[in-house]
Design brief:
By secondary structure, the protein is an alpha+beta fold. It is built from 4 helices and 5 strands. It has helices at about 15-30, 35-55, 80-85, 100-105; strands at about 5-10, 60-65, 70-75, 110-115, 120-125. Strands 1-2-3-5-4 form a 5-stranded antiparallel sheet, with helices on one face. This is Histidine kinase/HSP90-like ATPase domain-containing protein. Keywords: Kinase, Serine/threonine-protein kinase, Transferase.
Length: about 130
């Protein structure tokens, strides 16, 4: 990690605090306007998914590398089912959930590593 901006564990009670810290850290890294809003929303989706579907410990780390802001959200849950990762379209309006990964992929550069020992969601934004 070139320039560490944030690193902490979180739970359901700290989701709002985490969103605030992500916003401030992303602003300090140089994101602004719609790029900032998109990145914060993508990270928020990943954090809430970790709380909803993952198990502790859940962590978030954000750092800066040349030209890019990176945020990684981790949990020790059961992993993400393949059908959720393979969706090209969001879930229908009648489905409960199923839009978070789709949305993250449209708001940031998304990479997911998942398995029976947990999940790591990495979101990147250009610092042009």
């Amino acid at each position: 990690m070139t320039g560490s901006l944030l690193s902490l564990e979180f739970d359901r009670s700290s989701v709002t605090r985490v969103r605030h810290l992500v916003t401030v850290s992303a602003q300090e890294a140089g994101l602004e306007g719609m790029a900032l809003e998109d990145f914060v929303l993508a990270v928020h989706e990943a954090v809430t998914n970790a709380v909803r579907y993952g198990t502790p410990p859940r962590g978030i780390a954000m750092w800066r590398e040349p030209g890019v802001l990176i945020c990684e959200i981790t949990d020790q849950g059961p992993g993400i089912p393949a059908e959720a990762l393979d969706r090209d379209e969001p879930a229908t309006r009648f489905d409960f959930g199923g839009r978070g990964l789709w949305l993250m992929n449209r708001l940031a550069d998304l990479t997911v590593r998942t398995g029976s020992d947990g999940t790591a969601v990495r979101l990147c934004a250009s610092l042009a």
